[in-house]
Design a protein that fits this description.
globular; mainly beta
């Protein structure tokens, strides 16, 4: 897994270094030569960027391909969670660009977002607006992107408008990140 962070000065360097695992072999308990093939240990780092005028950019990668890029002026992140897994982060007023397998992009904004490193998921809250490069526009209360399936799930006051003017309204939306193959459901 690779996570790239730019724009927060020294904090960015700390987060990138913290995401890397220690690669030096561990010394043996007796003080003898290091044990070959020892398991690397994640280096925990807590990083904060509190809006010093610059924008921080975090790019999530999977198999050498971008999944999404998050841009935000303020964020708090931990490179390793309490269970020793990949860390989590929270962002204020993020702009997130989701990139599908074919390079198609959808740009989403919201007041808040939470990143879970373990499954590369992002939860955007507080009122989400997303626009795909094809012109599909989505509004919903919450939008969750699942990094494993590369699909989105919207909830609360879902409205999807296509370039042709078709409007779908409901309580939930499930679909691809490009907002072309979607299912909108209503409980009414």
């Amino acid at each position: 897994m690779m996570r790239v962070l730019r724009g927060a000065g020294a904090a960015a360097l700390v987060l990138v270094a913290g995401c890397a695992h220690a690669s030096a072999p561990k010394p043996s308990p007796s003080g003898a030569a290091p044990i070959a093939g020892a398991t690397p240990t994640p280096v925990p780092v807590h990083v904060m960027s509190l809006g010093n005028g610059s924008v921080t950019t975090l790019t999530e990668m999977k198999h050498g391909r971008k999944l999404y890029t998050i841009r935000a002026a303020q964020f708090v992140a931990d490179t390793v969670n309490d269970a020793g897994g990949l860390g989590n982060g929270s962002f204020d007023a993020p702009t997130i660009t989701f990139i599908d397998r074919n390079g198609g992009e959808t740009v989403a904004t919201a007041p808040k977002a939470e990143l879970r490193g373990a499954d590369k998921s992002v939860l955007m809250t507080g009122g989400v607006r997303a626009r795909s490069q094809d012109g599909n526009v989505l509004h919903c209360d919450r939008l969750r992107y699942d990094g494993r399936t590369e699909r989105v799930h919207g909830t609360g006051h879902v409205v999807l408008v296509t370039p042709s003017g078709l409007t779908l309204m409901g309580d939930t939306l499930d679909g691809d990140s490009r907002l072309r193959d979607v299912l909108v459901r209503s409980s009414k």
